[in-house]
């Protein structure tokens, strides 16, 4: 494969990942308290897991991790590694893992937006989330309320 083809393939892959992230961080319609109530009303209690455990599960086998944690309520605890803004200037919180180049991401939600300015790198937090997906092998938490 030529160098130009590799560059184009890399650029296309980066755009696909970008579109996935943007799609996942679409504005949340329900207020945070309603989301918390919806998660609380589900028949399945939230699965307790640390950010490191979640990352390790996805790192070992994405298919199994998605089957185990996928579309179910989770209570994820971890240490904040960064608070950044996405392309729409909405806050995103990342939780540290043992891999310095990959983390567990909490996508923007009303709760994240409300709390992001108060969080610092190194803070211990717990988030009640409606589910998890993955982007390029890293877990991405959605529909979260930071407790």
Would you mind describing this structure in some detail?
There is one protein chain. The chain has 147 residues and is an alpha/beta fold. It has a single domain (3-146), classed as OB fold (Dihydrolipoamide Acetyltransferase, E2P). It contains 5 helices and 6 strands; from the N terminus they run ααβααβββαββ. It has helices at 3-24, 32-41, 51-60, 62-69, 110-115; strands at 47-50, 74-85, 91-95, 104-106, 124-135, 138-146. A 5-stranded mixed barrel has the order 2-3-4-6-5, surrounded by 4 helices. Strand 5 and strand 6 (138-146) form a beta hairpin. Helix 3 packs across helix 4 (62-69). The model is unreliable at 25-30 (pLDDT under 50).
What descriptive keywords fit this protein?
5 helices, 5-stranded mixed beta barrel, 147 residues, alpha/beta, OB fold (Dihydrolipoamide Acetyltransferase, E2P), single chain
Shape category: globular
Name of the CATH first level: Mainly Beta
Given as residue ranges, the uncertain stretches (5+ residues, pLDDT < 50) are: 25-30
Strand content bin: 25-35%
Sheet of most strands: 5 strands, mixed, barrel
- The overall strand count is 6
Q: Helical stretch count? A: 5
CATH structural fold name: OB fold (Dihydrolipoamide Acetyltransferase, E2P)
- Widest sheet: strand order? 2-3-4-6-5
């Amino acid at each position: 494969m030529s160098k130009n083809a590799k560059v184009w393939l890399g650029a296309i892959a980066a755009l696909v990942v970008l579109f996935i992230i943007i799609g996942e961080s679409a504005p949340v319609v329900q207020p945070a308290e309603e989301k918390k109530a919806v998660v609380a009303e589900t028949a399945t209690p939230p699965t307790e897991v640390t950010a490191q455990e979640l990352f390790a599960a996805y790192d070992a086998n994405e298919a199994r991790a998605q089957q185990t944690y996928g579309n179910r309520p989770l209570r994820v605890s971890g240490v904040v590694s960064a608070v950044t803004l996405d392309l729409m200037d909405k806050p995103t919180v990342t939780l540290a893992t043992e891999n310095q180049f990959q983390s567990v991401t909490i996508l923007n939600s009303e709760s994240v937006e409300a709390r992001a300015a108060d969080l610092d790198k190194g803070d211990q937090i717990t988030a009640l989330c409606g589910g998890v997906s993955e982007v390029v092998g890293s877990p991405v938490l959605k529909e979260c309320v930071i407790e």
